[in-house]
Design brief:
Blueprint: H1 20-27, E1 31-36, E2 39-51, E3 79-84, E4 88-94, E5 103-113, H2 115-122, H3 135-142, E6 165-169, E7 180-183, E8 197-200
Antiparallel strand pairs: 1-2, 1-6, 2-5, 2-8, 3-4, 4-5, 7-8
Helix pairs in contact: 2-3
This protein binds a DNA duplex (13 and 13 nucleotides) through strand 3, strand 4 and helix 3.
DNA sequence: GCAATGATGCACT
DNA sequence: GTGCATCATTGCG
């Protein structure tokens, strides 16, 4: 494993409280990290989708606050994790100020740390490209479940004994000049034309059809 | 390579 | 009962 010194400092809450579309673009190239008793896993965010609240008919928070979407209404920098299609978890990062329901869905990571542990969770025959390519897959690789719903991503792993952590950090020497492209969001049936999906153009870890 | 499909839990009508 | 912010597998080229 490489040097992880830059990885242990979580981004502050101020990073997440801006306009959702801005935060979504800014999250591209950051690292999503997860520490459990089994070890550290982390990947570079290469694909996200923005979901707003009352004005976005594709959002889980389009209607009223419910037990499921509660985290989207909370303070920025928290996780919103939900169960999709009865079997996969997906993680969002909450944006905007508390009371304003909005979040960014993390759709794909370029695996960076703990690939062996990811493969234990995902399956021994899974290639690097498919470890974290897709919102359900990356949650399985990082062991993100609904237990992490509402988790504060700005706390970080701490200096010493914290066994369980989930946070977002700067990425060390990742090529930040990678071009960010936009497209409609995937897998939705409303607001299908809004270009609120952002991804690294040409990156092989992006989900869906080959990026153009 | 691609499209079609079943699995499966739960929020919501 | 219906509809998902999905994925792995199958069958075909």
């Amino acid at each position: 494993m490489e040097d992880v010194s830059s990885l242990v400092a979580p981004l502050p809450q101020a990073f997440f409280e801006g306009a959702t579309l801005d935060v979504a673009r800014a999250l591209i190239g950051k690292t999503l990290a997860r520490k459990t008793a089994r070890g550290l896993t982390a990947g570079i965010i290469v694909e996200v989708e923005a979901y707003a609240g009352a004005m976005d008919p594709a959002s889980h928070a389009y209607r009223a606050l419910t037990p499921r979407n509660r985290s989207m209404f909370g303070p920025p920098g928290r996780a919103y994790v939900y169960l999709s299609y009865g079997m996969h978890c997906c993680i969002n990062i909450v944006t905007e100020r508390e009371g304003e329901a909005a979040a960014v869905l993390v759709r794909a990571l370029e695996p960076a740390y703990g690939l062996a542990l990811m493969r234990e969770r995902r399956g021994a025959s899974i290639g690097d490209r498919d470890l974290c390519r897709g919102p359900g897959r990356l949650c399985q690789a990082l062991d993100i479940t609904r237990e992490q719903d509402g988790a504060d991503l700005t706390v970080g792993p701490g200096m010493d004994g914290v066994e369980d952590g989930l946070w977002v950090a700067e990425t060390g020497d990742w090529a930040m000049d990678a071009p960010i492209a936009a497209s409609p969001r995937i897998g939705i049936t409303r607001a299908v034309d809004w270009p609120w999906r952002f991804y690294v153009a040409g990156n092989r870890y992006v989900s869906g059809r080959p990026a153009r």
